[in-house]
Amino acid sequence: MTITLGEGNTPLLQAPRLSERLGVELWLKWEGANPTGSFKDRGMSVAVTRAVEGGATTVVCASTGNTAASAAAYAARAGLEAVIVVAAGGTASSKLVQVRAVGGRIVEVDGSFSDAYAHAEELASQNGHVLVNSTNPDRIEGQKTAAFEILEQLGGLPDVLTLPYGGGGNTKAYALGFMEAAGALPRLHPVESAQRATTLASAIRITDPIHRAEVDAALAQSGGSVVTVDDAEIVRAWRALGREEGLFCEPASAAGLAGLERGSAKQGERVVCVITGHGLKDPDAVG
Ligand SMILES: *Cc1c(COP(=O)(O)O)cnc(C)c1O
């Protein structure tokens, strides 16, 4: 049985005002339209379905918030327990509300995301427990579907894909998805905050990207590069998405546009910017 809440099939929206201002053909992949408000639902459906098939009783994850909200919801849907490990003070409160609302258990650890991840790995070594972080390959398999959708929605590959760069699982998933379905990659530009450890964009507040090696390999293959922006640029891009295109996303989700504003696409190129999560998830981050 597939554990689903109706994830995926999200809109690919044209961005006429931003396109004109930036001199590109810009499309926004609106992942805030997923059931728990972020792209994490794509992979969580697969990971929790496979956990049930394997006889698991409990899913475990470390999270900056969105993996938590998603894991807890899909676990509830499947009748499993969810144990969510977060760095104390590192998670937007709305995302913790989402976990509690569906009965997930929250464990706070003092330290960084990496400390939370180490603790989650330890918990997941218990019998019947499955780790549903992006190191679980089923997560990546589910997230690949966003690349398939973009190919269908555009009728082919874009020239450039930009997206926020936290742990890098999503960049890896897009690269795998495009290779599998099109045999080629758009130029990939994952965008990170210069203030990785403290950025106001809490969804990408990750000091050591766990998928760095795979991301670097995909960049080399696609001719792309990591773009590093500061928080003020992320906030400016976040505001532009709202005011110029009517899209209210969480701050981390605007990182791809901030990278584009830095000139990661040439005039006239067809660009997809992945808008990873909904604005209601982190409403206090930006005034
Ligand atoms: C998880 C997440 C990211 C970062 O994705 P990675 O796969 O860790 O690089 C970016 N934005 C949002 C909204 C997220 O939930």
Features:
287 residues, Rossmann fold, 11 helices, binds pyridoxal-5'-phosphate
Report on the architecture of this protein.
The chain has 287 residues and is an alpha/beta fold. The chain has two domains: 12-39 and 139-281, Rossmann fold (3-Layer(aba) Sandwich), CATH 3.40.50; 40-136, Rossmann fold, CATH 3.40.50. The protein is built from eleven helices and ten strands. The protein has helices at 16-22, 40-53, 66-78, 93-101, 113-124, 137-143, 145-154, 169-182, 212-222, 231-245, 255-261; strands at 12-14, 25-30, 58-62, 81-87, 105-109, 129-131, 160-164, 187-193, 227-229, 270-275. It has a six-stranded mixed sheet with strand order 1-2-10-7-8-9, sandwiched between helices. Helix 9 links the parallel strand 8 and strand 9. Helix 2 runs parallel beside helix 3, helix 2 crosses helix 6 and helix 7 crosses helix 8. The longest helix has 15 residues, at 231-245. The radius of gyration is 18 Å and the shape is globular. It binds pyridoxal-5'-phosphate. Pyridoxal-5'-phosphate binds next to helix 8. Residues 38, 40, 66, 134, 164-170, 203-204, 250, 252-253, 276-277 line the site of pyridoxal-5'-phosphate (PLP).
